[in-house]
Amino acid sequence: MAQTVWKGYLTFGLISVPVRLFAAARREHVSFHMLHNVCGTRIRQQLYCPHCERTVERSEIVKGYPESKDTFVVVTPEELKAIAPPSERSMDIVQFVHVQEIDPLYFDVSYYALPEEPGRKAYQLLVQTMQKSGYAAIAKVAMHQREYIVLIRPRANGLTLHTIYYPEELNQLAEYGKPGAVEIRPQEVELAERLVENLAAPFEPEKFQDEYRKRVLELIEAKREGKEVRAAPPAKVAPVIDLMEALQKSLAAAGRKPPERAEELQPAKAERKRPAKKKRLAS
Questions:
Q1: What does pTM read for this prediction?
Q2: CATH of 4-29+87-168, one of 1.10.405.10, 1.10.287.130, 2.40.290.10, 3.40.50.10680
Q3: Which helix or strand (DSSP H or E) is residue 115 part of?
Q4: CA distance 190 to 202
Q5: What is the pLDDT of residues 149-181, one digit of tens each?
């Protein structure tokens, strides 16, 4: 059974809904252990104090906030618990927003919110109200020794939560969004739009797989059976010299012929053909 990661109340005005949060997703990856290459034994990591020159037990460990290189402010678990905010037990809805107003860059981890038995009616009322209004909710919740902003939205007749980053947690790059002195021709945009339309399709997540994880598992199985391990063929990436030609070849490779009037989209070719047309009309 899934493990509860938070238990408390979701409050909406004077309505309190007892809920539990469960992780909505988890990463699947192949994990490796560190082994001693001499005997193949798994390596153990130990906690070592360089001042006392000995290994220490976890019961001897305390938390310290660094003030300088070798100076720390020691904080106990009891002190941290004493200053925990109300959102540790109560998740108050403070605002309603449209989901499309939030840049996906802010989204972090997703959770399912399930109601306790006494709160099922109030929970379903909130689900149906949000579905009908088209709004999602913003709230705060404290867990794992920090307070998160969360977006709560209706999904599949239930409520899903997404923790979102604070603005100061987003990385800022000075050069981001500055394309430089480049000129994009209208005909290039049109061909690119056709390529996008050709590749457009409804999102079906089950069609996608982690190819690298699959190859790692195949590698492990091959080594277990003593078989030869074959390297994956390198990806062929050629530099784009002629953007129009690359777009036309991309359309053809995607299973769709470039538009018949693609030549008309290239000024140089179009200018060469126009005089020939006039001669035929004159004759």
A1: 0.76
A2: 2.40.290.10
A3: strand 107-115
A4: 22
A5: 999 999 999 999 999 999 999 999 988 888 777
